[in-house]
Every structure is written in structure tokens, then in C-alpha cells.
Amino acid sequence: STIIPFVLADTVCAILLYITAHIYVRHSEGTNVEAKPGVGRTDAAEAPREPSSIPSICALTYLLNPYTIMACVGASWSSFEACAVLLALCGAASRNPPLAAFGVAAAAYLSLFPVLLAVPVAIALCNGLDREPRPQDSKPAGFRRVRRWAVLAVFSINVMLWLTFLHLLSNVALRGFEAPQAWISEVYIFLLTVPDLIPNIGLYWYLFIELFDFFRPLFLAAFLSQPLIALAPLCIRLYHRPLFVAVVVVMLVAIFKPYPSVADIALYLSLLPMFAQQLARMRLGVLAVTGFVASSVLGPVFWYLWIITGVANSNFYYATTLVLAVAQAVLLIDVLSATIKFDHKSTSSETRKGHKASQ
């Protein structure tokens, strides 16, 4: 009975995944229909699966993922964080600013780092989904500009209102305790200072155990700032793919969180099938899968040998966490590389077709 809330949270996640993928696939099909003849046909032919099956694949990938099952059985609150993140992505896909704002606020309230999703979600709300078709619009450009600013204002105000409401609700719930405001430092400051170095699947614990205290702030800032540093280049280079940028941000947060969970990995693995067409050119998938499998199998073994039997040491277990981090990094690089190649080929095809038409 203790895992029932987590089962329900995972079920809601699967439903939100299906809805988000359905909206995105329907949008992509509309883009392909309105595209000029000959543009993108090769790319569409290279898609590994029929678009109509992608929403079901996304939902089943999440529900049947061993990482999801492990997090559910372990009663990890990451399931609720994943639910909030998917709510934000669903709101962005449906261009619903209040829904997207609630998702971003709830995710940031639970784990702080998903606040970075506010940028790609805002871009999706203002400019539309990836490669959105632009039919002939009689409205002037000034009207569209005003509309974008209005959507951005509604989204920002809703995020602030929801964050304020959630924090006030927490203060009211903890009013009977001696220090009702202490939860802020125990949740958010705790994530930024990383005082607890209990072994986990992240990169921080072993490094900060071995590190001199003098260098701790430097390395802490370097690790925590990686998703933030990458956010601006991603939004500039892939401004036309805001939903994809949001998924990449989820991947970066999963890699560089101080206290990650396997549920974080399951979340972005279930989102990637949405972009099957542009990810058909991935080349390092086998290497990434090998890393995931090796770390998943050897991690519990080395943990048992180190903690239970005492015949191994922390180096064995930390090696598996490094393998997991490398596998995630390889997958991230491969995903970005495949998307950039896809965009480059599409742009080149359009340019050549334009030159032929002009001649």
C-alpha cells in the first residue's frame, strides 16, 4: 500500500507522455504535409517507426522501463518530479501557459533544478513547437509580436504565483513546528551545498570525499553550473526546436544533479522516441546502451561486495557510476549530433531546391 501513490504518479506520467507525444507527432505530420514536395522525404523514410505508434511507444517505454519500476518500488519522490516535468512539457506542447507554468513551478518546488525548463517552455509557448508550419496569416507582424509578449507575461506571472502559493502552503503546513521556514534550507540550500555524501548513482559523493575542502566551492560551482551554462547555447542553436531543447535540459539535469535517481533516466529515455525521425542518424546508441546495461548490472553487485560483504571498496562502486555518467553523456552527444545533422540536411535540401527554382 505504501507504493500506491507512486504507482499512480507513474500512471499519470505515462498518460502525460502519451498526450504530449500525440500532440507533437500530429504537429510533425502536419509539418510534413505542408512541406514542399521533395523536402524531407528521405528523412521521413529513415524514421524507424510509424509516427502513429510513437505515443504508445513513449508511454510503454516509461511504464515498462526497469528504472521506472525500481524507482516505484523504492518509493522515490522522483516520480512526482517527473510528473511535474511532463505536465510542463504537455502544457508547452498544447500551448497552454497556465498548465505549463504549473508544471514548471511544481517541478522547481520539488527539486529546484527543473526551473531551467522555464526557458525552452516559454519559447515553445511563444513560437510554437519544433518546425511549426506557418500558414498564410493576414495578421501583421506587430500583432504576433504583441501576442508573444502577452503569452510570455502570462506564463511568467503564473509561474511566480504558483511558486508563491506552494511555498505559502508549505509554511502553513509546517506552522506547528519550531522553525517552519527551515524546510527551505533543508531542501534548496541542501541541494546547492551537497552536505550529504552518502553513496548514490551521482558524481558528487566520491569526488567531494576525496577533495580538499579548500577546492570544494570551485568544483561545486563547476558541476552545478553545467546545465545553466549549456542552456543559452542550446536555445540559440536549436531555437526552432524548443521541446527538444527541454528534453536535453532534462538529460543535463539528470547527469549533473547532486542526488540523482534512476527515475530521472527513465524520464528522458521515454521522451526520446518522440524525435525518432531526427534521431534516426544516431551512431553511438550501441555504446550508450552497453554503458547503461553494464552500470545497471555491476552497480548492485559492487554495492553488495562493498557494503554488505566488505570484500570490495568504494572505487568499484564509483566506477559503475562513472560508466553510467559516460553512457548518459554519450547518449546526449549522439542525440545532439543527430539533430544538428538532420537540420543541416533539411536546410541544404531547401537551399538546393530554391536555387533550382530560381534558375
Automatic annotation (TrEMBL):
Subcellular location: Endoplasmic reticulum membrane
Stretches that traverse the bilayer: 6-25, 69-94, 100-129, 149-168, 188-207, 219-239, 245-272, 284-304, 316-336
Record pathway: Glycolipid biosynthesis; glycosylphosphatidylinositol-anchor biosynthesis
One BP term from GO: GPI anchor biosynthetic process
Keywords: Endoplasmic reticulum, GPI-anchor biosynthesis, Membrane, Transmembrane, Transmembrane helix
Record keyword Endoplasmic reticulum present: yes
Topological type in the membrane: Multi-pass membrane protein
Lineage of source species: Eukaryota, Viridiplantae, Chlorophyta, Pyramimonadophyceae, Pyramimonadales
Family as reported in the entry's similarity comment: Belongs to the PIGU family.
InterPro entries in UniProt: PIG-U
CC per GO annotation: GPI-anchor transamidase complex
Organism: Pyramimonas obovata
Principal place of residence: endoplasmic reticulum
Protein name as catalogued: GPI transamidase subunit PIG-U
Pfam families in the record: PIG-U
